[in-house]
Amino acid sequence: MFYAIIAICFLLSVRLVKDGDPPKYFKEHDPVIQQYNYEYEAQKEELKVEYEKNLLPKSGYMLTEEYEELSRGIPRIELKVEEAIPFKPSNMKYVPQPTYKLVRYNNPPGTPELNLPRKVNFDRQINAQGIVSGDFTKLVYPTVYYYAEANCTSCSVFVIPLDTSLTKLERVQKANVAKKIDKPIFQTDTDITQEGAFRTFTPVDFSVDNRYIIAKEKIGYAHDGIWQTNLWVHDFKTDKTTELPEIREAITNYWHNVSGVEFNEKRWDIYPLGFDKNNPDRILVCAYAYTGDVPSFLGTWSIDTEGERAELVDLHGTKYDVSVIGFKMVYDSYVPREQVEWEADRQAKIEEEREKQSLKNKKKMKKAYKKLYKQKLRKLKAQYRLKIREYKKSKKRGTTSFGDEQGIQVDADNIENQPDVDFDKMREERDAMIKQRQKEMEEIRQRKNKRAIQRQEKKKAREEKRLQEESLKNQPKEAPVGNGENQ
Questions:
Q1: Using alpha carbons only, how large is the chain's radius of gyration in Å?
Q2: How would you class 214 by CB atoms within 10 Å of its CB: exposed for 0-12, middle for 13-18, buried for 19 or more?
Q3: Do both 172 and 299 map to the same domain?
Q4: pTM of this prediction?
Q5: Which uninterrupted H or E stretch holds 464?
Q6: CA–CA distances in Å: residue 28 to residues 12, 464, 487
Q7: Once rounded to an integer, what is the mean pLDDT over residues 22-39?
Q8: Per-residue pLDDT reduced to its tens digit, 335-352
Q9: Is the predicted pLDDT of residue 25 greater than 70, yes or no?
Q10: Dist CA 313 CA 279 (whole Å)
Q11: What is the extent of the structural domain holding 10?
Q12: What count of Cα atoms within 13 Å lies in the side-chain half-sphere of residue 78?
């Protein structure tokens, strides 16, 4: 009996060695099988390392291919910019939150100005107030650069396309400089050899059809004020920027011919107002001469967008209709405290739910990685067994010799593409059958319960009918009632 048990155990071990993994205590002397065993163990280790790597959190240590994939450039239009979360102490629930609204930018006409705060001396760059087009498709804003070496500034004006899927206010609130168009539509001279000089651009307004935008370039000296203002216009349709010096030339020529004054030797300047409401193709400009006291009015002038024809509109007044098209965002009021606290509680609940969902997603990902790892492991094991089996068959037929791996009559491609058993599909089919059987049993149980309830109701109805009949039989007979006549 003892020897029989030993023989059975030996046969079982031989069977396991034949088709299973190579046992560690058994040393295979066949070099081909040794090679297969080595490849199998190496591939198993690679799969294990890959599986464990997928479970680790993301870090800066990665392969070159992974780094290149993650660092691939994203177009500015597709770039998603996360909203900045302001710092708030953990014990502080209420933080005043301002609300915003959209108002007309160039109102009153000609009043928009760009002010340079002292902050620019430290930050070296600031973004000024932007103007939104009348159709809410783009936002135009100036950026001022400060050069400390020469104490001078330069300026560029950029365009940010707005997301048309949002509301008008949300488009402006979510506009980010990261999505700006790199090429500026206006740009000053960047010469920093003139110490103390400043050059800035200030958008004035859009045209009625939002095709043009006018801007005023101010050139001056930090200790002496503004020297002159130049008028510029940009055409969004042709992407062309044009300076309009003809308006200044027309003003100086007119006053030279009328009064003989040489304005090149005087301090004077222009103030662009915007596009003429009655003639949308022309730009209205007012001119003033500085006298040391009350400025002297030099007339209201107009010029077309191409700078071909400058005209004197009025020599004594400025009351002309100017189209006001662009918008800007300003503070409106503050959100009530009760609403802020309610929103804070709601956000806390949302964040808690998000964390729970994140944990669930992590568990699902781990299960998915583990499932994929097991599938790959089963496929690798099936391929290994097939290789060993085919090799041993070919060795028995004598189609291979010692160490001659090339003699194996095995199609490597067929081995690689050999379909493994789809355990997941079998498990799904089994679960579906169980669910179907449970559903059928539940339907049978419901039908039985329904029939039992119907029997109980019928029995109860019969019992009530019987009791009613008995009560009628046991009631005494009443005396006959007359026909309503007095007895």
A1: 44
A2: buried
A3: yes
A4: 0.62
A5: helix 423-474
A6: 18, 88, 127
A7: 71
A8: 888 888 888 888 889 989
A9: no
A10: 12
A11: 1-96+354-398+408-416
A12: 4
